[in-house]
User: What shape does this take?
Amino acid sequence: MSDFSALIGQVLKSSKFKVKKKKLLMFAESIGAKQAQFNDPNDPIAHPAYANAYVLPALMGVTEAKNADGSQLIKNPLKILHGGQVYSYPKGAPPIKDGDKLITTPKIKNIEVKSNGMMLITCTAETKQKDSEAVVCSSEIGIVVMPGGF
Amino acid sequence: MVKWDDIKEGEIGTSMEYGPLMRAEFVDYANAGGDTNPIHTDEFAGIRAGNKGVIAHGLYSHAFLGKMLVDWVGAENLKTYGGRMTGMARPGDMLLLTAKVTKKYEEGGEKLVDLEIKSVTKTYYVRGMGKASPDMSDADLIKKLENAKYEIEVGFVPAEKWEFKLKVKHIEDVEINTKRTVMDEPVVRDWLRAGKDKLTAEIIGKRKGDSFRFGIVRLRESIGGTATVAIPE
Assistant: This one.
């Protein structure tokens, strides 16, 4: 049984995400969100589900996780599956708008190898607006690495 | 507008149905959401990855849970939501989304509701039309449809036309119009996990006299999780 305790709490590479009006509008349309605030052609705000887009690059940070001996935790990124995602929105968080620069920093919360041979990595991530440093979303991300991938 | 007094623990707070999912929507979502993995947009990339074709982005189904909750209480009242992805959705599937109230309480001056949220994928295997006496209850009709035997016969001469013939073993007091009934043979061949998948029948729409439309479907949970929302005053 591998010991992953040294990896718990490891802060992974942050991802940067620039919010673009066109993408906000496309996202709202892709999920059929009809509310005016998400579809204003001049000044739309992000639908809460848009966290999918700005947290996603942080997932890739998991591939950078390293074992205590410096070797890569994940040997084959093609064996990664998305296991789950939970978003929390702080009260009073500013709306996400065109031009915002978002920084998401993931941290390893837990790693376990299940009896079926799959590794389950749980990360927490915090997304901040770069300029105001306000937290706009906290996430918990579940990543599954299939056998042969670690 | 949702009202605090109308919310009851143990009941469905809100629900939504979306679909049938289309490949073109996966392309739109990939462009908007940034997940451009070709397994969601290219049939052969899906096959090379070990799937049986294109599958929806897990986060695409996930986004609809967010949409359902925002439509219910407004974006500013969504506190947290999400869950585990446990199954796939593919083109043609329907998403059945529900939010069941597990707890309602007041905290920090807000009226809050905890929810069990779920996305269930509905896949059609057979869709068709038939006739049965209006006196037969929906429950009895469904039972008969579920216990019928459906077979598809494929015959072709390469230089000539293909023939697909659906045969339904005689169902007592029910007449199936096999010319107006289709079986999604690729779905059955590629996606049915024999012995694991439970299929059920449903009546589509309302019965008109002795005519009815029906489907044989598989329901499988694709996301299960939780959410917390505030109920606006």
About this structure: Chain A has one domain: 5-145. Chain A is about 15% helix and 30% strand. The longest strand of chain A covers residues 101-113. The mean pLDDT of chain A is 92.
